[in-house]
Design a protein that fits this description.
Helices cover about 25% and strands about 25% of the residues. The protein has about 250 residues and is an alpha/beta fold. The strands form two sheets. Strands 6-5-4-3-2-1-14 form a seven-stranded mixed beta sheet. A seven-stranded mixed beta sheet has the order 7-8-9-10-11-12-13. It folds into two domains: about 120 residues, Ribonuclease Z/Hydroxyacylglutathione hydrolase-like (Metallo-beta-lactamase, Chain A, 4-Layer Sandwich); about 130 residues, Metallo-beta-lactamase, Chain A. The chain is globular and about 55 Å long.
Length: about 250
């Protein structure tokens, strides 16, 4: 199983893309602006989308994806998220006012899009690959994902602040190889991080101290223009954990 990063920034500009990863050729984890870099052929191969939460930087390309390839496919795209997130998508995106309701186009029996509610701890298995939502703590209902090939696992926290359950799950994964964890703000913006329920370097270091497994740690969701200062703070606060900055195009083998 290969997991490729399409976008991992907290914003846009230049070559920055917002959060999305593609697993092999057919599964997306979030659908931020990085999805727009895929070719039409690659977009047609996407059968499943797992969403962490409803914020725009994580769902921006989902409406365009379905609109672009829906009529070119013989089966719908399945979108997995918590019931709360799906309700937000129905009410505020696929509502005929912002975007057509593709769960009813061309009709409800054979739509371009199907919503699938999932809850933390509920595993979806696709051709031997296991995708399990794990709790997160953000300003809207949110989850991260545990992705398991059988040989190795990756945990992606999604957007979160302090969350005990993330570490309960991660510490129970015997084959954990990678941890992708967000740090949206530098230490000078700790108050903003608290208000928006994100991590900052000092708090990141405290949280990583709760990880009992050996894993390679990658930092995602850095804000545009603040990556250097945030990573400098991380290196100072969390050097013992050897965290690396995630980048577009990074590939993880599981």
């Amino acid at each position: 199983m290969l997991v490729r990063v399409l976008g991992c920034s907290g914003g846009i500009g230049g070559n920055l893309r917002t959060t999305s990863m593609i697993v092999d050729q057919d599964v997306l984890i979030d659908a931020g602006t990085g999805v727009g870099d895929l070719s039409l052929t690659e977009l047609q191969l996407v059968d499943h989308v797992f969403l962490t939460h409803s914020h725009l930087d994580h769902i921006a390309m989902l409406p365009f994806l379905v609109d672009t390839v829906g009529g070119l496919r013989r089966k719908p795209i399945y979108v997995y998220a918590t019931e709360e997130t799906l309700e937000i998508l129905r009410d505020h995106i696929f509502n005929w006012k912002i975007w057509p309701d593709f769960s009813k186009i061309p009709d409800e029996r054979q739509p371009f899009l199907r919503f699938v509610p999932i809850a933390p701890g509920q595993t979806v298995e696709l051709d031997g690959r296991r995708f399990t939502p794990i709790p997160a703590n953000h300003t809207v209902p949110a989850v991260g994902y545990w992705i398991d090939s059988g040989e190795a696992s990756l945990v992606f926290t999604g957007d979160t602040t302090v969350c005990d359950d993330i570490w309960k799950v991660a510490n129970g994964i015997e084959n954990l190889r990678y941890l992708i964890i967000e740090t949206a703000f530098h230490n000078g913006e700790a108050d903003l991080a608290r208000a928006s329920k994100h991590l900052w370097p000092e708090k990141l270091a405290e949280e990583l101290g709760r990880l009992e497994r050996k894993a390679r740690i990658y930092i995602t969701h850095l804000k545009p223009g603040e990556g250097a200062i945030t990573m400098s703070d991380i290196e100072e606060c969390a050097e013992a954990f050897n965290p690396r900055m995630l980048a577009n195009g990074h590939v993880f083998k599981l």
